[in-house]
Every structure is written in structure tokens, then in C-alpha cells.
């Protein structure tokens, strides 16, 4: 199976690197292109057997499955531009959340799927969110599921939870990286610990928490219970969090959903 990637920015590059590291796809079976060709050539410099082509048309002509790793509002114009090149045998995979698989199916003749990856997939970890179109054949469904099993835990989602699932699995690493950085900054500001040591300790801590959850040694509530001794120091810290976090995450989801709705409307106007 030959895989094409149109768009080699952060997520496109991440997928390529993860697949190769997991030995899910051989370098010579990947064909890529990017609007800024230097980004594609940089990937080829690291993986010399990857084929870089000049335009999206060549990607389609040389591959079976094509991943569109571009901005939501760039997808419809590109699909129309490439209309003469899609065939019923191709499988088109979008990685963007505001565009439903049914919308893409309405303008192309091929099999369609959507896979929303997470940056955690680069470490062959985390979830990937999969939705198949009605026309997507069983052999493509099976291949895509196996492909993402090598770098993640595939989770199949319906359209109605696309945004919140993406917030948790795909946006979550950025949200919690920000919180962890603020945690570190406060430690440095309020004590004599160096930023380097605080960063090392906090990073080791978050990795350790992940391992505890991965090995199912604790749930999130029981983990808090085990660390938080009644009347102890951790309890005082939890009391501050309970008082000050409040509706913060509800506001985060409200904001991301508002932006999602805005993009969905723009995409709807393009497809109609």
C-alpha cells in the first residue's frame, strides 16, 4: 500500500515519523508534498527513500491512500482542484475535525475516512480518533485501523462528539503542557529551586502518573486518595485547587466549541 501525505507541517510530519519509527510503513512507500517545498525536503533529508513530488496531483497518481494534513478551509478548494485525479479506488483521509466525512464524500468519488491524531502518537502512544465514511470499504477500514494501532489506541467516534473528543485527545497535550509549565514557574518563583531541577522533577512526575494510569494501578480518584493524607500538606494544596480552578475547564471547552462552530459554518458555506 502506497501512502501519500499532502501537507508536511507539524501533524503531517509527526505521522510520517511515527509510522516509520513503528515500522508500520516503509520509507519507499511514502510520497509527500507541501506548499512550502523545503518542509517536505527536510523530511526527505532525514528519510532519504521517501519520495517528494512537486504537487498534490502527483501524490494522488502515485498512491492508494492520501492523507490531507492541511488547514480546514484549504481542503474544499484542493478537493475541487484535484477532482480530475480522484478515482473510486483511492482512499482519502482527512485529519481535520470541522469537516465531516459526509461533506468530503459529497465532492469526491473515492473511499473517505477521518483520523484526528494526537501529538502523543509521535511517542507511539495516546489516542487517534477515527470516523469512516459510508463508502469506505472494509479493506480500507481494516488497513487504517491497523496502521493507527501501531502508533496509538484507535478510538471510533461519531460526529456529535468530534469536538470534545478532539479537545481531550488532541488539544489536551497543549492544555496540560501549559498547566505544567505554570506549575514549574510558580515553584521557581516562590522557592529557591532552579528552573532546570523543577522541570526535571515535574516531567518525571507527569511521566510517572501516566505509567500508573497506563498500568491501571490507580484511577484518577484513587490516585488522589493515596497521595492526599487527611490533614496533610497535599490536602492543603488540593483545597486551593478546588477553590481556584472552578469553571476553568468548562470555559476552555466553551471557547474551543465556539471556534469549532465558527469553522464548521465556514466549511459548510464552501461545501454548499
From TrEMBL:
Phylogenetic lineage: Bacteria, Bacillati, Bacillota, Bacilli, Bacillales
Which top-level enzyme class is recorded in the Swiss-Prot or TrEMBL entry? oxidoreductase
Q: Which NCBIfam families match?
A: PRK07680.1 (NF005814)
The text of the family note is: Belongs to the pyrroline-5-carboxylate reductase family.
Pathway listed for it is: Amino-acid biosynthesis; L-proline biosynthesis; L-proline from L-glutamate 5-semialdehyde: step 1/1
Cite a single Pfam family from the UniProt record: P5CR_dimer
What domain of life is recorded for the organism?
Bacteria
For this UniProt record, the keywords arranged alphabetically read as follows:
Amino-acid biosynthesis, Cytoplasm, NADP, Oxidoreductase, Proline biosynthesis
User: Which SUPFAM superfamilies does the entry link to?
Assistant: 6-phosphogluconate dehydrogenase C-terminal domain-like, NAD(P)-binding Rossmann-fold domains
Which cellular component terms (GO) are annotated to the entry? Answer: cytoplasm
What positions does the domain Pyrroline-5-carboxylate reductase catalytic N-terminal occupy? 2-97
Instruction: Give the reactions, separated by semicolons, that this protein catalyses.
Output: L-proline + NADP(+) = (S)-1-pyrroline-5-carboxylate + NADPH + 2 H(+); L-proline + NAD(+) = (S)-1-pyrroline-5-carboxylate + NADH + 2 H(+)
**Which segment of the chain is annotated as a signal peptide?**
none
The name of this protein is: Pyrroline-5-carboxylate reductase
Primary role: Catalyzes the reduction of 1-pyrroline-5-carboxylate (PCA) to L-proline.
Does the keyword Kinase belong to this entry? no
Q: Where does NADP(+) bind?
A: 6-11
The places in or outside the cell where this protein is found are:
Cytoplasm
Query: Which GO terms fall under molecular function for this chain's record?
Result: pyrroline-5-carboxylate reductase activity
Name the encoding gene, please: proC
Q: What is its EC number?
A: 1.5.1.2
Q: Which PANTHER family match?
A: COME OPERON PROTEIN 4, PYRROLINE-5-CARBOXYLATE REDUCTASE
Amino acid at each position: 500500500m502506497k501512502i501519500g501525505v499532502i501537507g508536511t507541517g507539524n501533524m503531517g510530519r509527526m505521522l510520517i515519523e511515527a509510522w516509520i519509527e513503528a515500522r508500520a510503513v516503509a520509507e519507499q512507500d511514502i510520497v509527500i508534498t507541501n506548499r512550502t517545498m523545503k518542509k517536505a525536503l527536510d523530511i526527505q533529508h532525514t528519510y532519504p527513500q521517501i519520495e517528494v513530488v512537486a504537487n498534490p496531483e502527483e501524490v494522488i497518481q502515485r498512491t492508494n491512500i492520501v492523507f490531507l494534513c492541511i488547514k480546514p478551509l484549504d481542503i474544499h478548494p484542493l478537493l475541487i482542484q484535484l477532482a480530475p485525479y480522484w478515482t473510486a479506488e483511492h482512499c482519502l483521509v482527512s485529519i481535520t475535525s470541522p469537516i465531516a466525512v459526509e461533506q468530503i464524500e459529497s465532492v469526491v468519488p473515492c473511499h473517505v475516512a477521518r483520523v484526528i491524531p494526537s501529538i502523543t502518537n509521535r511517542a507511539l502512544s495516546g489516542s487517534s480518533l477515527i470516523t469512516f465514511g459510508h463508502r469506505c470499504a472494509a479493506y480500507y477500514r481494516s488497513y487504517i485501523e491497523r496502521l493507527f494501532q501501531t502508533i496509538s489506541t484507535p478510538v471510533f467516534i461519531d460526529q456529535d462528539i468530534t469536538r470534545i473528543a478532539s479537545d481531550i485527545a488532541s488539544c489536551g497535550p497543549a492544555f496540560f503542557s501549559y498547566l505544567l509549565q505554570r506549575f514549574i514557574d510558580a515553584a521557581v518563583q516562590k522557592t529557591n529551586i532552579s528552573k532546570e531541577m523543577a522541570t526535571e522533577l515535574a516531567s518525571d512526575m507527569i511521566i510517572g502518573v501516566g505509567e500508573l494510569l497506563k498500568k491501571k494501578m490507580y484511577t484518577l480518584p484513587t490516585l488522589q486518595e493515596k497521595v492526599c493524607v487527611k490533614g496533610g500538606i497535599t490536602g492543603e494544596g488540593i483545597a486551593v485547587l478546588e477553590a481556584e480552578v472552578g469553571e476553568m475547564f468548562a470555559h476552555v471547552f466553551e471557547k474551543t466549541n465556539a471556534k469549532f462552530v465558527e469553522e464548521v459554518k465556514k466549511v459548510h458555506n464552501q461545501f454548499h
